[in-house]
Write a structure and sequence with these properties.
Elements: E1 5-9, H1 16-27, E2 33-37, H2 40-45, H3 67-77, E3 84-91, E4 95-96, E5 99-102, H4 110-118, E6 123-126, E7 139-145, H5 149-165, E8 178-184, E9 187-188, H6 208-213, E10 222-226, E11 235-242
Parallel strand pairs: 1-2, 1-3, 3-7, 5-6, 6-8
Antiparallel strand pairs: 4-10, 5-7, 8-11, 9-11, 10-11
Helix pairs in contact: 1-5, 4-5
């Protein structure tokens, strides 16, 4: 029995690997995989978003003056009736590790979890922001580390084909993953360049002094992804903490 998969790229159009995969799936279709560009107007304008971040705009508002809130209604409607829905993102620069963001209220099937294991995902991050995964059963945000557009597209194509069409795809259980809680995406101007050293890996617990700089004193926190150098808003990182 096949799985019907909805794959969204371009929630953030500046994340090139995600949009490239959606484009490639339209040009070279895979049976039972339906691709789409989540934020086409932002892509057309060469922006990350038009008015507000689409990733946190669900379930949307069809009467809103903000484009992303109107678009969220459409994306949500076009995500119904699938066995698995994937909101694909990629870490453009810096460091991190493939991981999936989920909402525990919608859940993931053993087959969806098995797909994540086949692409090297070891960590699940529970979020509370208003993404599509909060409103559609068996959906998740897949954050992938970019190694090169060509290799990323082919690797993910193969994995999606297995998810949709390979009955022998191994399943997995929640216990096969490490679990984390997403805390935020801070820009902190007080953290000097080079603070996060090359020997620190994604999901390693941050040294206490760095956690304090990031605004989390006396807590075991870690990065799921980060930029090596500060941008105009300061040092950036996706912060989470282990769920014990």
């Amino acid at each position: 029995m096949s799985e019907h998969v909805r794959l969204w790229g371009g929630t953030h159009p500046d994340e090139k690997a995600a949009t490239a995969l959606a484009d490639d799936l339209k040009a070279r279709p895979i049976p039972n995989v339906i691709p789409g560009i989540a934020n086409p107007l932002a892509r057309e304008q060469g922006k990350r978003y038009v008015d507000i971040n689409l990733a946190g705009s669900f379930p949307g508002d069809s009467s809103s003056k903000k484009y992303e809130q109107r678009r969220a209604v459409q994306v949500l409607a076009e995500s119904q009736g699938f066995d698995v829905v994937i909101d694909l993102h990629n870490i453009n620069s810096g460091r991190g590790e493939n991981h999936a963001c989920i909402d525990t209220s919608t859940g993931l099937s053993p087959r969806a979890l098995g797909f994540l294991r086949t692409i090297g995902v070891r960590h699940l991050v529970v979020t509370d922001y208003a993404g599509i995964h909060k409103f559609v059963p068996n959906s998740f945000v897949l954050e992938t580390l970019t190694n090169g557009l060509g290799s990323d597209v082919e690797r993910l194509r193969s994995a999606l084909d297995r998810l949709a069409n390979d009955l022998s795809l191994p399943t997995a259980n929640e216990e096969d993953f490490s679990w984390y809680r997403h805390l935020g995406s801070p820009h902190v101007s007080t953290v000097p360049p080079g603070t996060v050293t090359p020997d620190l890996n994604a999901f390693d617990v941050l040294p206490g002094e760095i956690a304090t700089m990031m605004g989390y004193p006396d807590r075991q926190v870690c990065f799921s992804g980060w930029l090596d150098e500060p941008n105009e808003k300061g040092y950036w990182g996706e912060i989470c903490e282990p769920i014990v």
